[in-house]
């Protein structure tokens, strides 16, 4: 009992505060450019091995063919005049000798294994290739992009993503994989679209290639029929199955069977309640070149007032919303600062997880897909600490709030499809962390790079989308200024990233640090928490 309570407390504390514990050692092929490069290198290596195996095999084939031709030559000579041929003592000896002596080495040659070295190397390399989880992550990321940006599979398959033409296209197997996951998630309409594409692409591929890879027309037709039926198109599904030579008339019964046994979604890709609004906001500022005109700016001015320092070095600020107050400060960090932050975080990046209220464990969740690291580390170099002191000072200057210690600072890196489902940054729960420092009164989100496509921060309850801008910091209060009640309008999330990576650093500012600055500290301390546990970061 004691140990369970202890374990629970430890889990809750570390669970809520440092969410990015698990999945140590697993590579992240989605966020890490380095891992993707490694993968490309391995792909090259494997192709070289396959080619060298094929050359070795071809050598052996050539050798065997030469021997066969040689043997055949004597037979050709004897053809039609066998008696005469064999009456010649030279030919008789030759035949006897060959039959007695030559077949054994030939058999030996046939049995000799080919390309063992290459096979062993391929096997070794394969141990280090992406696993099903990795593929799932990439598949779900692409499904998320298609869903959030309302894209058509046929466009995506030929590289046209949200108005941008990328090089490259999807294969029949890629489309089939996307269809399978969509089907498992209960998204039958989109699964149908992926399968129709898979079918077309499949028919354009060499048959032999498809046979080896394992994708078959039957597989595609079966899933297509099931998706169509789940989507209400029983007759079309029936037609497809009957047309398939494998089923013929039995297709009727099969379609009926699928109809009577509808699929149950087994994959949770989680979509949020305000999905429509949030996705719409994400779409409105998805591309960098169109961002400038889309974002609503109320005021753009220099902040020279919150602290005496700003009189000397004012920050250009854009007030994006007055109530709740949300402001974007420009050029808060310089290139050196940002490079240092990236450098010190990279080695410690791990997948961000969320703490689940229901089973109280840290787990990967489709609602949050990024890598994260809590910084600064305990053993950070003095010059790194110095940078955090400067940042702390700057945050204090621009926000006018007390910023104590270097705690609750998270570096995050998103890869393609990486997103953070809308949430509020406050915990609204009674945890030992909240007891110690209070709730997160405000948030400062630093953009450490400019994303070309996707990845904006969107506030769905106030219709605001903010594209990333390198060096800028987005600031907002999570609690109402007067009452200190939670401000639900600060509900926000990170739109799925479409290309490249997105780097941010979040600095949360705490209630209890404002103790001597804000006299009305009592209400939040006495509030009834609506949740005992939370699934926040
Ligand atoms: O990455 C973003 O745009 C938002 C991040 C965020 O909401 C958070 O870290 O709490
Ligand atoms: Fe947040």
TrEMBL record:
Keyword Ribosomal protein: no
Gene Ontology MF terms in the entry: iron ion binding; L-ascorbic acid binding; procollagen-proline 4-dioxygenase activity
Domain Fe2OG dioxygenase as annotated: residue spans: 402-511
Principal cellular location given in the protein's record: endoplasmic reticulum
PROSITE patterns: FE2OG_OXY
Cofactor: L-ascorbate
Keywords: Coiled coil, Dioxygenase, Endoplasmic reticulum, Glycoprotein, Iron, Metal-binding, Oxidoreductase, Vitamin C
SMART domains named in the record: P4Hc (SM00702)
Coiled coil: 50-81
Subcellular location: Endoplasmic reticulum lumen
GO cellular component: endoplasmic reticulum lumen
UniProt keyword Metal-binding, yes or no: yes
Enzyme Commission numbers on file: 1.14.11.2
Family per similarity comment: Belongs to the P4HA family.
Function comment: Catalyzes the post-translational formation of 4-hydroxyproline in -Xaa-Pro-Gly- sequences in collagens and other proteins.
Name of the protein: procollagen-proline 4-dioxygenase
Organism, scientific name: Drosophila rhopaloa
Lineage: Eukaryota, Metazoa, Ecdysozoa, Arthropoda, Hexapoda
Protein encoded by which gene: LOC108042607
């Amino acid at each position: 009992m004691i140990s369970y309570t202890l374990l629970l407390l430890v889990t809750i504390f570390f669970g809520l505060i440092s969410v990015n514990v698990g999945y140590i050692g697993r590579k992240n092929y989605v966020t890490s450019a380095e891992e993707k490069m490694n993968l490309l290198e391995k792909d090259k290596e494997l192709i070289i091995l396959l080619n060298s195996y094929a050359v070795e095999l071809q050598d052996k084939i050539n050798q065997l063919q030469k021997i066969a031709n040689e043997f055949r030559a004597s037979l050709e000579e004897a053809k039609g005049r066998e008696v005469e041929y064999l009456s010649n003592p030279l030919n008789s000896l030759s035949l006897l000798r060959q039959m007695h002596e030559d077949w054994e080495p030939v058999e030996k040659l046939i049995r000799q294994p080919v390309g063992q070295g290459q096979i062993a190397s391929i096997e070794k390399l394969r141990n280090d290739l992406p696993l099903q989880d990795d593929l799932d992550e990439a598949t779900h990321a692409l499904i998320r992009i298609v869903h959030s940006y309302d894209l058509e599979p046929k466009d995506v398959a030929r590289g046209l993503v949200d108005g941008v033409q990328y090089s490259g296209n999807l294969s029949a197997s890629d489309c089939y994989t996307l269809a399978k996951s969509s089907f498992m998630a209960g998204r039958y309409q989109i699964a149908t679209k992926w399968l129709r594409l898979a079918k077309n692409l499949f028919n354009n591929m060499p048959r032999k290639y498809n046979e080896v890879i394992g994708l078959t027309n039957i597989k595609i037709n079966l899933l297509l029929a099931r998706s169509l039926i789940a989507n209400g198109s029983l007759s079309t599904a029936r037609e497809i199955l009957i047309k398939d030579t494998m089923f013929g008339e039995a297709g009727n019964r099969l379609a009926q069977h699928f109809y009577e046994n509808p699929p149950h979604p087994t994959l949770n890709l989680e979509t949020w309640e305000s999905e429509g609004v949030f996705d719409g906001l994400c779409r409105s500022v998805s591309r960098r070149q169109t961002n400038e005109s889309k974002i609503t700016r109320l005021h753009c001015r220099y902040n020279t007032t919150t602290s005496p320092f700003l009189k000397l070095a004012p920050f250009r600020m854009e007030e994006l919303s007055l109530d709740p107050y949300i402001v974007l400060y420009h050029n808060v960090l310089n290139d050196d600062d940002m490079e240092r932050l990236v450098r010190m975080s990279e080695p410690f990046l791990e997948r961000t997880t969320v703490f689940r209220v229901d089973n109280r464990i840290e787990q990967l969740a489709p609602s949050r897909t990024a890598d994260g690291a809590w910084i600064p580390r305990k053993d950070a170099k003095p010059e790194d600490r110095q940078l955090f002191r400067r940042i702390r000072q700057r945050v204090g200057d621009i926000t006018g709030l007390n910023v104590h210690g270097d705690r609750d600072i998270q570096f995050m890196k998103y890869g393609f499809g990486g997103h953070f489902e809308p949430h509020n940054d406050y915990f609204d729960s009674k945890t030992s962390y909240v007891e110690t420092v209070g709730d997160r009164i405000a948030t400062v989100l630093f953009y450490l790079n400019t994303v070309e496509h996707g990845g904006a921060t969107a506030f769905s309850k106030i219709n605001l989308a903010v594209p990333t801008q390198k060096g800028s910091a987005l600031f907002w209060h999570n609690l109402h200024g007067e009452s200190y009640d939670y401000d639900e309008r600060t509900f926000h999330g990170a739109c799925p990233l479409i290309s490249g990576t997105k780097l941010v650093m979040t600095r949360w500012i705490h209630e209890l640090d404002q103790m001597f600055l804000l006299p009305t500290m009592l209400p939040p301390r006495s509030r009834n928490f609506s949740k005992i546990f939370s699934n926040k970061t």
